[in-house]
Amino acid sequence: MRVHAIVEDLATARRAVEAGATVVQLRLKAPTPQVVAAGRGFGDLGATFVVNDDVEAALALGADGVHLGQADRGAGLARGLGLMLGRSAARFLDIQRAAHLQRMHELTELKRSDNMADVLLADHGLYHLEADLRWIDHTAARLDLLTRSVRR
User: How many other C-beta atoms are found inside a 10 Å radius of the C-beta of residue 36?
Assistant: First the structure.
């Protein structure tokens, strides 16, 4: 399961991650210096970190991404820098891989059940997760190509 928490401060972000959030988005309608000040520490939470509407703050904080509409100020800069690509995309894929492996472990335990319906449902889930893992590995191997393609 993936949970995307939209927060305004580090304390709330910390609670969200402790509760299972895998993505934390700092949404603070303020000048860039205030967003940067509020965003310190988000990168250490162990979740994908996204800044809302402020490319400069996202870069200053080393965020994994920035949430922008296509027409928002800074959208061209973000695309030009490949803010959602490269290392950040690799980190996102690593997080997804870990979540899939955890779920596969849970489903494998479920297969020990005497209930054939549970076993079949676990198999179904495992087959889908295996396919997702192959896609994650395939995509991770091609991030450099994707980055060059987007930057053209």
Answer: 19
Query: Quick one: average pLDDT of 138-149?
Result: 76
Nearest CA to 51 out of 98, 3, 96, 10 is that of 10
- Please check whether residue 148 is in contact with residue 112, taking contact to mean a CB–CB distance below 8 angstroms: no
Q: pTM, whole model, 2 decimals?
A: 0.54
pLDDT higher than threshold 90 for residue 146: no
The phi and psi torsions of 36 (rounded to 5 degrees) equal -60, -45
Residue 73 token pair: 């100020």
Indicate the SS3 state at residue 142: coil
Residue 25 pairs in a beta bridge with 6, 50
